[in-house]
Design a protein that fits this description.
Elements (H helix, E strand, L loop, with lengths): L1 H21 L16 H12 L9 E17 L11 E20 L3 E12 L4 E3 L1 H4 L3 H10 L5 E3 L1 H31 L4 E3 L5 E3 L1
Helix pairs in contact: 1-5
Amino acid sequence: MIHRNVRIIMVLAILILGSAQHAMPINAATNDKKNLGDFSEKLESSLQSSENYYDEHTINILDAFQMEGEVVKVLQPDDPLTDEDEMKTEVSQSTITVAYVEFLKKRDSIFFFKKKEIFFYDTEKGQFLTFSNVSGNEEIKEYFDEHVHELKTTMQMSSLITYLVLLFAFVLIIPLLIISFTRGGSRSTAYTYTNPSGRGISS
């Protein structure tokens, strides 16, 4: 009976795991509807070199716009140990690309996570910027504040199913296999003893 239950559970686990693997996300194509020049290529290259566990070519641009704005870069930070303001900054005007992007991260080839992030890009200098570089532009600040609560990393449903299947297998199937083999071994065990008459009796 235990062998039968184990077989049923294993079949169900294989079927669920198979369906989860078929549901693995396909690499999302870059949104070509946005007239962003070479931004997509630059972002792909940047993520490949800087983002841990990035799943290549999964960029999906959800929203984007370009504007003329102010870019502020800190050339020399202020020394907090002195009374003087020693900070030196460089302020320039440039065309700024603001892109609301989602992409995938992959762990152990089976676990996929979707990450949403806003990127800022100096189109004229070909450099990625931080929010602090462009936060002085009111339009960008409002856009960032509007979407900041959406910037997070979430596990894909297919990966969650795979995780639950593996957890299910570890918690339930393995103990059942151990019990099954233990009982099977105990039934096949035989022993012999000799009674006072000298005859061996097997059990």
